[in-house]
Amino acid sequence: MAAGASPVERDVLINLLPDFFAVLESADPVPAYESYFDTHRGILEAYWHNYVLDPHGPHFQEVVRGALRADRNDLRTMLARTDVVALAQSTTERTLALLEADVEVDVVLMVGVGAANAGELVIDGRGVVFICLEHFTSLPNSETQGLGLDPELIPLWLAHEIAHAVRYTSPTSRSVLRELIAEAGGYYSYWETGRLAPLRELLVNEGLAVQTARVISPGHASWEYYGFARRQYLRMRELETALTRAMQPDLDESGLGLRLRYLSGGMSEEARTVDRFLLPERGGYYLGARMVEPAITSRGLPWAIRASAAELTEAALDSVASA
Question: How is the beta sheet containing 118-123 ordered, strand by strand?
Answer without folding.
Answer: 12-15, 105-110, 126-132, 118-123
